[in-house]
């Protein structure tokens, strides 16, 4: 199970809107200055990811929630998104190479195959979108921010 902590933005009628902050690289070491993944993340724009999760327990804004998704569904989703267009690109290029023999038609076949692969991936993703295996689930709920009080002396 892949796990990540998220912050509650809002909760209304059993649906929570959560914000997940991206982390650089794998996050398993302190070699941030020499890590290629950290440097690549510094080049990109700062972004945050939002997701909606159905949860019956009322949540407060600012509350932390641990969400998880199974590795199998994550790998199947990644395969669908990356391998389907790649397979279309290779198959289209090979088919047009066999039919027309010129490089220009091979390139055109590759582009058409990749486009068809993207359309197939989009269609398949729409079919599996609502399935529960592909939805994140709430694993833990942290204390609301109002429950923690610091007493000063």
Automatic annotation (TrEMBL):
UniProt keyword rRNA-binding present: no
Pfam families: RseC_MucC (PF04246)
Keyword Transmembrane helix on entry: yes
Entry coiled-coil feature ranges: none
Alphabetical UniProt keywords: Membrane, Transmembrane, Transmembrane helix
Transmembrane intervals: 80-101, 107-125
Highest rank taxon of the organism: Bacteria
The protein, known as: Sigma-E factor regulatory protein rseC
Organism the protein comes from: Yersinia frederiksenii ATCC 33641
